[in-house]
Amino acid sequence: NAGVTQTPKFQVLKTGQSMTLQCAQDMNHNSMYWYRQDPGMGLRLIYYSASEGTTDKGEVPNGYNVSRLNKREFSLRLESAAPSQTSVYFCASSEYGGSMDEKLFFGSGTQLSVL
Amino acid sequence: GENVEQHPSTLSVQEGDSAVIKCTYSDSASNYFPWYKQELGKGPQLIIDIRSNVGEKKDQRIAVTLNKTAKHFSLHITETQPEDSAVYFCAAVEANQAGTALIFGKGTTLSVSS
Predict the structure, then answer these.
(1) Helix-strand-coil percent breakdown of chain B, rounded to 5?
(2) Is the pLDDT of residue B94 over 90?
(3) Whole-number Cα distances in Å, B76 to B16, B52, B59
(4) Alpha-carbon distances, residue B98 vs A104, B1, B26 (angstroms)
(5) pLDDT for res B99
(6) Nearest-5° angle of CA B66, CA B70, CA B75?
(7) Is the CB of residue A94 less than 8 Å from the CB of residue A50?
(8) Which residues contact B13 (CB under 8 A, 6 or more apart)?
(9) What is the CA B76 to chain-centroid distance, rounded?
(10) CB contact under 8 A, A57 and B106
(11) Mean pLDDT across chain B, nearest whole number?
(12) Cβ–Cβ of A45/B102 closer than 8 Å?
């Protein structure tokens, strides 16, 4: 099993450009998450989807949108990228979801630079 | 909301020594406390977790202790090995009006030298 797969692994954008980060999991998990990781800041939740068809804001949702395309796929879109969105983005999934008190499975990350 | 403080930010030990990382949390309602290990270039992986009805949990060379009264929990790694070198994150669950969220500490970079 591949687990959680993220594409692309690296991306450079110019300010104002848009892009979509893709995430897919093959573990039949109900819940999926997007985190960003900045130096010295730990991991911060951007958006999550507790089940197919639902999405909710996390700690830092401004400037992002998400789509839970189906049970496997959860995409993160930057409509107009800003330098403050330079970060490493991680997608994660969990089997049940809803209460967050279960194991998260993380992808290997997307390193995004906005110039 | 929940606030998770993690110390130290960096920790260097000799192979075979023990390492201890400490976290404090602010929300007394939090009841789940996981620890994640992140190796260079990879995503975090859960290594151990503890729930509020337990004071200590062990898994081979790693252990986690929880003091609910003081609102702190710690990760203990014994007989450290070079492959333990990584960034370690603690976390706590925050319950709010929107649902629940896993709030992470800022991480501890552990270096084990042989």
Answers:
(1) 5, 60, 35
(2) no
(3) 13, 18, 10
(4) 19, 12, 18
(5) 60
(6) 30
(7) no
(8) B19, B80, B110, B111, B112, B113
(9) 9
(10) no
(11) 92
(12) yes
Does residue A106 or residue B1 have the better pLDDT?
A106
Given pLDDT bands bounded at 50, 70 and 90, which one contains residue B29? confident
pLDDT in tens, A48-94: 898 888 898 888 999 999 999 899 999 999 999 999 999 999 999 99
- What residues 49-108 of chain A have any CB closer than 8 A to a CB of chain B? 50, 56-59, 90, 92, 98-101, 103-104, 106-108
DSSP A42-89: EEEEEEEESSTT--EE-S--TTEEEEE-SSSBEEEEESS--GGG-EEE
pLDDT of residue A1: 66
What's the rounded Cα separation, in Å, for the pair A88 and A111?
A: 4
Which residues does chain A have within 8 Å of residue B107's beta carbon, measured at their own beta carbons? Answer: 40, 42
What is the pLDDT, as a whole number, of residue A98? Answer: 63
Q: Return the structure tokens found at B103.
A: 């709030």
Q: What is the pLDDT of residue B93?
A: 84
Minimum Cα–Cα distance from B40: chain A residue: A108
